[in-house]
């Protein structure tokens, strides 16, 4: 049965029912260092296919207190430059983490302050992640994997600073093993670190106002990342980066849009125009250059907006609401949210889909964002459910008939009949079904009316649990547009959504 998911509270559910304070107090009272039986210092926590048997046999687990005389969780604040990617291909996690360090309102939730290596140290730490509708508190011990004396996972730039390695270990535990971090989608990590909604722009056909979108996202404190497909001019193939800034500066006789990007390797930079040491910087006024330009091999670099769109494959933007759609103007904009959990069941509601996408209007007109997330079985990727998506049917232009339409649907006890889909086939908006990502999100302009939202799989008979989130935008304080969520249409996996302007 579907149920409404409440917004996260300050008291997070305990992952594996492990309570950080209780476990730490127990260890302190007995003079013990915590050892986590649910994610042990053992090859099972690494995963079966990440390393060869020979390397697995040489693996060592060390606590920070064994490595450094004076370890700290954080030294001089948290920064993206604290991170250097290790042997594991988890750039998608570290690029999202680099963006998180720029947004303190999210960072302080993920990285609790009630822990460290000085007071009350007992070899135990905890971190919070958003996991399928809930913030969960993940406890770990501080034994870290080393291979041939080197960090297997992320290594800190400062030898005695350990927040990146410990946070990465907690995320590996949440996902099942270190192996599950080896390749993934930055979109997943952005959502797991914020509990927010992410949108993706494919840059082969970028929106005409791409630079404006990025600047608006930066202004509204969004997390941003990007990915490459090809090896070009200093950029790495199949790699995730963090977008850390966007601005325009005077150049020659006009203005140039530039975008700042960071590589989670901690080195390896773009070598084209606007890179460190490029001649373009010689023609920028000193007062601009001194605030923006740094010639350091730290993985961060500037490039033109045009080169960014040419060199990168995708741009991802994430925030707790779709604030980038406000284009930086948040004075009169509010977003409401409804969340529901349900599942596709073979023979009942896993019916598949064969609809086609429709054209979309201008970005600035969107007022609804729909996000569908499927839950992996046992927290592992489910290869059998490759494509998911959702359909939005326009049921009625008349909002005053809301209750009557709802009562008509409520009478259905099995699922929406074939007659429903044939009746409204010409009035459907569809999204997804061509991506294997966990999270399928898109934005729409929906005029006042009644809509039915139907999450679906691409093929009949595929089963999984899913989370549906719907964000509704209100333009200003006088906008009384209402979002009515009537709940699941019994056994049909449809929800009725009414957009109604009152007063």
From TrEMBL:
Any Pfam family: Peptidase_C2
Domain Calpain catalytic: 33-321
InterPro entries in the record: Calpain_cysteine_protease, Calpain_domain_III, Calpain_III, Calpain_III_sf, Papain-like_cys_pep_sf, Pept_cys_AS, Peptidase_C2_calpain_cat
GO BP annotation list: proteolysis
Entry keywords, A to Z: Hydrolase, Protease, Thiol protease
Catalytic residues of the enzyme: 91, 239, 263
A single Gene Ontology CC term: cytoplasm
Family annotation (CDD domains): CysPc
Recorded GO MF terms: calcium-dependent cysteine-type endopeptidase activity
Family membership noted in the UniProt record: Belongs to the peptidase C2 family.
PANTHER family for this protein: CALPAIN, CALPAIN-13
Protein name: Calpain 13
Encoding gene per record: CAPN13
